[in-house]
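Translate sequence into structure tokens.
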Amino acid sequence: MNLNTTHQDSLNLPYQEVLQFTNPLYYRYEKSEIGIISQLALEAGNWTFTAVHDAEDFYTVTHETGVSFLAELKNGTGKNKGTYQIKGCVQN
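Result follows.
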């Protein structure tokens, strides 16, 4: 059986994706009168996620700790090519 990429993408099969965070990822990061209120999700570094195609260039990515978010794959040029941009809230 010969499946082309279009058919494989439509199956929404999960795959492993290593994402690099140059800064920590927070569930919550707010400035308040008493200081910064934050709740850390993942420290800066390289983390392996399970990615599932959602729609167009959007993927739902989930870490084994339960951290999950919707990300858009950037197909641009230069340093942003092949990078993800988080869309929406980080969830657990």
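Note: The chain has one helix and seven strands.
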